[in-house]
């Protein structure tokens, strides 16, 4: 039911950081650079800087695992921690964690519904309450997204997390959680103005009485 989707990984462009301290850090940010660290188990941490523009491109690429070249060797890295400015929402600092291709890691990836459900073509509505799932897999098998084929769903059909099987990763979520479903859309209730039949009868009776009085007056005048 589920398929993983991968593509060429985003390459992080980093420069060695040579200046440290609060004043130096402020100067870096003022010049458009963001301090970043790279950690890997059993290794010394590396301190780099990245341009604010490039770092935002990486964050908006939709990828979870990035390429990074350190000492001439291409490595893999995932975001470990991000420090945001509380007011401007700018990135102040970021930590990357080194990922070996054979390491077993847990990482969130987006869920993408693929196809046009039969039920939607018949007037139903596709609902997707879950847009991201936590997966466990090897670093080399991390998907950029998990695709869910919804083309065969009829109205009332549901795909649960337990149906997202894959040979390369495990979904870390209860099997009975709804991922996508096709439901009947709620229709707007028609407003119906009810008229009291007694009121209508009263008006008819009133009209009849007036008519009869008119006839009586005519008969009196004829006499």
Please, could you describe this protein's structure?
- The protein has 223 residues and is an alpha+beta fold.
- Helix content is 21%, strand content 38%.
- It folds into two domains: 2-99, Ribosomal Protein L25, Chain P; 106-183, Ribosomal protein L25, C-terminal domain (RNA Polymerase Alpha Subunit, Chain A, domain 2).
- It has a seven-stranded mixed β-sheet with strand order 2-6-7-8-4-5-3.
- It is elongated.
- 20% of the residues are buried.
- The model is unreliable at 188-192 and 202-209 (pLDDT under 50).
Distance between the termini: 96 Å
Computed Rg: 34 Å
Oligomer: single chain
- Rough shape? elongated
Q: Compute the number of helices.
A: 4
Order of helices and strands: EEEHEEHEEEEHEEEEEEH
Low-confidence segments, given as residue ranges, are: 188-192, 202-209
Rounded mean pLDDT score: 81
Provide keyphrases for this structure.
15 strands, 4 helices, 223 residues, 21% helix, RNA Polymerase Alpha Subunit, Chain A, domain 2, 7-stranded mixed β-sheet, Ribosomal Protein L25, Chain P, 5-stranded mixed β-sheet, 2 domains, alpha+beta
């Amino acid at each position: 039911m589920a398929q993983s989707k991968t593509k060429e990984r985003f390459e992080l462009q980093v420069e060695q950081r040579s200046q440290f301290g609060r004043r130096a850090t402020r100067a870096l940010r003022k010049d458009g650079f963001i301090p970043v660290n790279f950690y890997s188990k059993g290794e010394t941490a590396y301190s780099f800087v990245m341009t604010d523009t490039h770092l935002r491109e990486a964050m908006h690429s939709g990828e979870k695992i990035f390429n990074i070249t350190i000492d001439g060797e291409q490595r893999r890295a995932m975001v470990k921690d991000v420090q945001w400015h509380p007011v401007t929402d700018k990135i102040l600092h970021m930590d990357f964690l080194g990922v070996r291709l054979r390491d077993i890691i847990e990482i969130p990836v987006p869920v993408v519904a693929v196809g046009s459900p039969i039920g939607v073509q018949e007037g139903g509505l596709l609902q997707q309450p879950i847009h991201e799932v936590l997966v466990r897999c090897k670093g080399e098998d991390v998907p950029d997204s998990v695709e869910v084929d919804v083309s065969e769903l009829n109205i009332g059909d549901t795909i649960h997390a337990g149906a997202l099987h894959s040979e390369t990763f495990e979904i870390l979520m209860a099997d009975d959680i709804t991922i996508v479903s096709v439901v009947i859309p709620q229709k707007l209730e028609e407003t119906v103005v009810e008229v009291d039949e007694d009121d209508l009868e009263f008006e008819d009776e009133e009209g009849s009485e007036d008519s009869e009085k008119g006839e009586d007056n005519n008969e009196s005048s004829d006499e």
